[in-house]
Model the fold of this input.
Amino acid sequence: MKMRTPSTLGFAAALGLDDAVIDFLRSREEPDGIITPCPLPSGDAVRITDGSWRGLAAILDRRVSARERVLVLLDILQCQARVEMPEPWVRLA
Done:
């Protein structure tokens, strides 16, 4: 879900929201004024819910920007492998 910040920030300022909150939101906006939330924080444990790796636990490495995909770290055969997959395939563990 994407949200345009100019109107949101204007509304927040009209409500008397603390300047620190508005500054935080502005720091997250992209050049086009859109904030794209990242619901899965990097470094968190996730469970893979679909695809070939379904049911395995992993660590979220990072989102692959603008592609709705993520990189996860899987422990396979005593080795850590970085695997890219669609973001909807992972959930917080």
Notes: The two ends are 22 Å apart (CA to CA).
